[in-house]
Amino acid sequence: SNGHEKIDHVYKVVVIGDSAVGKTQILSRFAKNEFCLDSKSTIGVEFQTRTVTIKGKVIKAQIWDTAGQERYRAVTSAYYRGALGAMLVYDITKRQTFDHVARWVEELRAHADNSIVIMLIGNKADLVDLRAVPTEDALEFAEDQGLFFSETSALNGDNVDTAFFKILEEIYGVV
Ligand code: GDP
Ligand code: MG
């Protein structure tokens, strides 16, 4: 990339889910291919971008981070405004973060556009020995709610790009 390529579309994607599930690390992995071992909760950075090509179109993905406001109902409707996609993240080693996913879906239904594409993400899939959420439970919930689903590891990068490309392709398909 010479930085002068023509952008065909800018897609806003929000990342939501409980605190410490790995939202910021997933975003860094996708945007910069970085993982920061001792990340502090994010303050300030609103979004990161990565430009990708989908079906010959240059898509600038603008991925928004909650910046430490992930307390239930503390994320304001401004955060969701204009979002075409949402990555709803839980931690496969923390059952409670999965139990809260239904509330996050309610938040999206209340504040985001009806046509928003939602992907449920079970992160920290590298921590196999600590798994507390069976894949089948998440898959069943996702199918029930009409969400896409993937398990990822921001630590080793597994499925992160694949999940983002999937949601961007789906957005491309629906816009
Ligand atoms: P956020 O609050 O949802 O933004 O979570 P962070 O991205 O700040 O991550 C919270 C903690 O989980 C940090 O200590 C990360 O290093 C760790 N973490 C994030 N993603 C992964 C992952 O895929 N695997 C493992 N083992 N740890 C992760
Ligand atoms: Mg964060």
From TrEMBL:
Coiled coil: none annotated. It comes from the Eukaryota. Signal peptide: none annotated. Belongs to the small GTPase superfamily. Rab family. This is Ras-related protein RABA3. It comes from Ziziphus jujuba (Chinese jujube). The chain holds residues 12 to 186 of 233 of the full protein.
